[in-house]
Amino acid sequence: MSNAAENPPAARRPAFRVERWNRISILATSAVAAAVVAFALVPLALDTNAVDKLTTLFVYLILAAMWNALAGYAGLVSVGQQAFFGLGAYFTIQLANRGVGVYPAVVLAALIAGAVAIPTSLFVLRLHGGVFAIGTWVVAEVFHLLVNLDESVGGVTGTSLVGLNDYEAGDRARYTYWMTLGATVLLLGAIFALLRSRTGASLQAIRDDEEAAASVGVRVLWAKWVVFILAAIGCGAAGALWLATSITFQPNSYFSVEWTAFMIFMVLVGGLGTFEGPIVGALVFFLVQNQFGAEGVWYLVGLGSAAVLVAMFLPRGIWGSLEDRLGIQLLPVGYRLRQSHGKKA
Question: Count of domains in the chain?
């Protein structure tokens, strides 16, 4: 009798299934693909000002996605990602001054920023918690000082990406837009693929408990290294593309910790540790900056206040809170256990 009570017949047991894709996520992925095609046609329909604004939005999206990959999925809270943002712009200038075409220079500069991250990672990835955060900031300041000493780019004064003068203003805006859109799709696609892989599962285990992850065979340093290099390439690409948009390069601006502060704001507002969150956060930040960016210091006060309010009332961010309440993932990177009637177990 006790065995029958403890082990009900299969027909009476609740049926469960493991799923990653469902109807909603398939429709969402199809919508994203359609949106990419639509965005690719934007320069043919809208004016240069609109194209420039969308280019800015895509740069923000890259930055938010890179910081979220580090902190949200790997637990690596960096306050020094401006190092690679600045290096991306710096190497673009250097390559262009040596005869490399402007747009090939943008691609190469992002890869060089990733290459610089390799020896950097040998130091910073051995740090943990707050020490890691401080270490990344120190590294960023070292790079900043070294670039300031380089008279070939004007030192503190900076210089301009003169190679862009070879392009008519409208053509330059379109080419930069298409390259930024392509970089956004490629980099977010790379993060999506990484998070759905075994390395992505390892990263989340490391974030939750690094010692426990190591005890079951997770290659901790390897997993951290992969996401750190990818984030460096992404931030380097963002810096190079920002330079292609703004033309001028000033080290104090490109290596400012303000860039990492913006990344943190976008991710926390959108939803830390969710794939969709940085997209929402980047859009919110773009809209706020577009409306209030000219307000000077009050704009920064407003951003800080907004971040505090979100942390108080929506601790999981906008998208994270919606995900918890509605139980949906538009772009799933993990698995879910659901009962057969559709409710999450």
Answer: 1
| Cβ-proximal residues to 233 (8 Å cutoff; 6+ apart), any chain | 84, 110, 111, 113, 114, 117, 187
DSSP of 281-326: HHHHHHHHHHHHGGGTHHHHHHHHHHHHHHHHH-TTHHHHHHHHHH
Q: Residue 101 is part of which domain span?
A: 40-259
Tens digit of each residue's pLDDT (9 = 90 or more) over 317-336: 898 888 888 777 777 776 66
Residue 89, CA distances (Å) to 158, 203, 283, 344 in order: 11, 29, 23, 46
- What backbone phi and psi angles, to 5 degrees, belong to 210? -65, -40
Q: pLDDT tens across 123-145, in order?
A: 999 998 889 999 999 999 999 99
**What CA–CA distance (Å, rounded) separates 198 from 201?**
5
Q: Is residue 190 part of a domain?
A: yes
Q: pTM of the predicted model, to two decimals?
A: 0.89
Q: What is the bridge-based pairing of β-strands 336-339 and 16-19? A: antiparallel
Helix axes 82-97, 102-124, angle to 10 degrees: 140
| Cα–Cα dist 102/79, whole Å | 29
Instruction: Indicate the SS3 state at residue 96.
Output: helix
- Which residues, 6 or more positions from 232, have their beta carbon under 8 angstroms from its beta carbon? 84, 113, 114, 116, 117, 120
